[in-house]
Structures are given as structure tokens and as C-alpha cells.
Amino acid sequence: MNPTFNRRPVSYQEARSSIQSFVRPVRETEELPIEKALSRVLSEDIVSPVNVPEANNSAMDGYAMKFSDLAADGSGTLRLAGESFAGHPFTGRIEPGECIRIMTGAEVPDCCDTVIQQELASVEGSLVSFAAGVGRGGNVRLRGEELRRGCPAIPAGTRLTPAWIGLTATLGLRTVRVYSRPRVAILSTGDELTDPGQPLGKGRIYDANSFSIAALAQRAGAEIAMRKIVRDDPKELLQALEEALEADVILTSGGVSVGAADFTRFVAAQKGEIFNWEVPMRPGRPMAVGVVAGKLLFCLPGNPVAAAVTFLEFARGAIRKTGGELGDVDPPCLTATAEGRFKKRPGRYEMQRGIFRIDEKGRAVVKSTGMQSSAMLTSMCRGNCIVWLDKDRGAVEPGEQVLVQPFFGLLDS
Ligand SMILES: Nc1nc2c(c(=O)[nH]1)N[C@H]1C(S)=C(S)[C@@H](COP(=O)(O)OP(=O)(O)OC[C@H]3O[C@@H](n4cnc5c(N)ncnc54)[C@H](O)[C@@H]3O)O[C@H]1N2
Ligand code: MOO
Description:
alpha/beta; Molybdenum Cofactor Biosythetic Enzyme, Chain A; Molybdopterin biosynthesis moea protein, domain 2; Molybdopterin biosynthesis moeA protein, domain 3; 6-stranded mixed sheet; about 20% helix; binds ligand LQZAQKY5; binds molybdate ion; magnesium; transferase; metal-binding; MoaB/Mog_dom; Molybdopterin molybdenumtransferase
């Protein structure tokens, strides 16, 4: 068992773009009330059924008038003729030389074109005097200035953030049509693995990957269709893989290295195609990727940090795209100044775990979380970013610039 694969070194970028070309987005959709649609992906374009705002309205508490009733600098004195509150518009008419009291969000009547905030006004009886400062059209939010009825408002493929959810409500929509969540199967391989909560036998460890990878997949928008510990037995692995084919994406962990009990890629190759790539990276070099029955299969390495990092760098984006999301699914990276030294040798990409912050001078700075063993999940728990070091780079000295992938984008849905 375990023949040697001749693996071809491929760049990080090539592996990522090839993976994207095998993504098959889900087709099923469902209608959800907007309060249940957070982080879901819109499956159809939304055209605005309303103007936003529907009427001209005031951006300030103050007074509304026709600007031509004031001097060119906006100063003057006008007579108070009424009031407009949010929800209670002014329905009368104003005569030349008149103004109305108006509140933020209240409709600006058609006979007015300008609002002056009350801080620039002084009131004496029914007369209001305005200091100069506001120009024609000042402080008026115009009908349809944000969105016009019948115009595109939210494109299909948008992941609904809290702001988009707010916008769907602004448009008066009660429900939205979204893609069904991509279904992910998680197989953790290894004779040593024990489900947490069970007594630990000799030579055994608790299965961390099933849970961390399931949590990561959920953060990427997936639903967990199956989660299973599989023994280091090719028959059992083959059977589990067949069961896993009901999911849209399959994630295994463990058994991809060169050990005598590392069967995953060979068993997977019996059912589908395993690409013979090797991304020279640390952690994660043993990772394998393939396609089985049209489904993307990620064989993640067993070491818990290697499994999590390879998930974030390769599987996360594929799962998000499988979920119908369009556009760039990667959170923005930033450059930061190394606060300490980062050990590194040229020839492989390294995804070290770091802690970045904005220092007293307003600069982004980053330091290591300490020991970088891929067996130590604490090296990741204590960090807030990946320090992404390019292949040809050597050790990083304090003061040098490095690329940082913050977890707040990677680990949020
Ligand atoms: N001779 C070589 N040995 C190893 C190499 C190599 O190139 N040559 N690569 C190392 C690297 S890098 C990694 S990463 C691991 C990957 O190995 P596998 O994917 O085959 O994983 P396993 O051997 O099954 O396990 C590795 C390690 O992780 C623990 N593990 C596995 N699954 C889980 C789980 N679900 N939860 C928690 N911990 C898990 C397992 O007990 C091992 O300690 O191979 C290196 N070896
Ligand atoms: O993928 Mo490994 O984590 O570098 O030990």
C-alpha cells in the first residue's frame, strides 16, 4: 500500500486558481425572511421597488425655506409658517418670506429647497433669523438620490452582511431568495482518534480536526452534512468517501503524508482524480486536492494547524464560491512591520501565526505567536492573523514589512 506519488511543485497562486476552476456552485435556492438571511448568498438580482429616499427630506433639525428668499450667502430673516416632523409632513404652502420648522428625516415640502440647521438660527416670536453659511439645496436629502425605483440594488451572488440586510428592509422586502448552503462532509482519519467526551485509551488522542474544520466550514457558509472518524483502513476509508459524496465538498484530514498508514490520497484516487500537485508551504505541504464524482475533495494534513491553515488558504474560498458567492471572497490583506524576528528559509511559502496591532504611531505591527509547531493549535488560538511569507523569502528581521491576513475576515462568515 501507499505507493509514492510524483508530486509536481505548483505555486500557491496556481493551486488556488486551478481549484476555483473546479468549483460547481449549488443550484438549489430557498426563500428566507430577512432576519434569517444574514451571511446567506443572494441567488437573484434585487431591483429596487422604491426610491430611496421616497421623498426629499431633511438631514438636520432646523428650518426649511426657498433659498431665493435669503441673501446669496444664506443669511436673512423669515416668518415661521408651520412645521414638518418625521411621519407628519407639512401639508400647507409657504408664501414668499416664510419658512417652516423641520426635523431630521421629515419631508421637505416641494415649495422648499434648502434646510438650515437650528444652530445657525435665532428665533424671536414668529421670526427666524439665519446666519450665513448654508448654500442652495443644503441639508436636503433628495428623492431617489441613493437608489431609484427600478434600478439594480443588490446583485445576485452578494453575501448578505448586516448592512445589506438593512438595505433589503429599506427596500421594503420581507423575504429574499438565497442559495442553499453548500453541504460539506468531514472525515477525520486515524486509528488514534477518539471522540471528545469518551475515555482516552493508550496511544489515543482526541479528534480536534473534525470540530475545528466543521467550525471553519460553517464560517465559510457551509452546512455540515456528515462528520465521521475513519480508521486507517483503506476499505473503511473508501466506504466513508462513498457516503461523503452526497455532500458538495469533501474535507478529509490526516493520512496524506508518506507514513505506512497514510492512505487517504490513494483511496481517493480510486474514486476520482487526485492532482499530483505539491504546494511548497509550511504548514500544509502534504495537502492533496482532487475531484471525485464532480465534487471538490480537499485532503488536509492531520496536524491540526496544518489542517486549519490549508483550509483557510484553499478550501475556504472554494466553499464560498460553491455557495454561489461572486466576486473576490478573500478578505483584504495588510502589510505590517515585523516587531520581532520571523524564522524562515527560502524555498517554501510559510503561513505563520501572528498578533498584529496598530502601535502608538499608528503603524500596523506584527509579532509571532511563539512556537510554530503545526501540532500546536494554541499557536493559532492566540493569534489574530496569518503572517504570509513568500516562497523566496528568508528570515524576516525586525523592521521589515510582511503581509498579514487578518483572521477577522477569514474566520467571519
Ligand atoms: N517522513 C515524513 N513525515 C512527515 C512529513 C514528511 O514530509 N515526511 N510531513 C509532515 C507534515 S508537514 C505533516 S502536516 C504531517 C501530515 O501527516 P498526515 O496528513 O499523514 O497526518 P497524520 O500522520 O495522520 O497525522 C499527523 C499528526 O496529526 C495528528 N492528527 C491527525 N488527525 C487529527 C485529528 N483529527 N485531530 C487531532 N490531531 C490529529 C496525528 O495524531 C499526528 O500527530 O506529516 C508529517 N510527517
Ligand atoms: O503540514 Mo505540516 O504541518 O507542515 O507538519
